[in-house]
Amino acid sequence: MAKKNILMLTGDYAEDYETMVPFQMLHMVGHEVHAVCPDKKKGDTIATAVHDFLGDQTYRETPGHRFQLNYSFKKVDEKDYDALVIAGGRAPEYLRLNERVLEITRHFAGKDKPIAAICHGIQILTAADVVRGRKLTAYPAVGPEVTLAGGTYVDVPATDAVVDGKLVTSPAWPGHSKWIAEFLKVLGTKIEL
Description:
Number of domains: 1
Mean pLDDT: 96
Structural class: alpha/beta
Distance between the termini: 14 Å
Largest sheet: 6 strands, mixed
CATH architecture: 3-Layer(aba) Sandwich
Order of helices and strands: EEHEEEEHHEHEHEEEH
Number of strands: 11
Low-confidence stretches: none
Shape: globular
Strand content: 15-25%
Number of helices: 6
C-alpha cells in the first residue's frame, strides 16, 4: 500500500468524534495526516464538542477534548497532499468564511483528488462551490445548502455514506465505519487481515 499524505481541516468546536476518530483511523492504516486550523500552528489545540442525540429535536452539544494540531496552517501547500478530510461540527460554519480554506478545497476538487467530508463539513464544500452536479449527503440541516449550491442531497441513515467519484460524505459520526471504509477504497488503501 502506498502511504498517502492527507490534509485534515478542523477548528474550534469541530465535532470531537469527527476530528479524532478519522485522524486516528487514517494514521492507524499508515497514512500521514496533517490536522490544521486557520490562524493556528503545530502544537496549538482546538476545543472540540460532542454532538449527541438525547431525544431533543436536534443534537445537544457538550464539551469534548482539546485536540492538538500536528501541522501549521500557514505551511500548507495543497499540492503536497493526496487527499482532503473535512471534519464536521460547528467549526465549518466559520471555517467557510476563510478564503484560504476555500482555495484549498477548490484545489482538491479541481484536481479530482479524494475528499472525505462529514456532517456540517459539507458547508465548506458548498461555500467553495464544488458540489454542483455532485451527489452527496450531509447532516440533514445542511441538505438545503447542498441543493442551493447545485448538488443533489441524498438522505441516508446516519450510519451510511455516499460516494460520488472521489467524494465521500456521511451525515454524522455514527457513519464513521462506512465513511472511512469507502474513503480508504477511494484512496486505494487495502487492509489485509
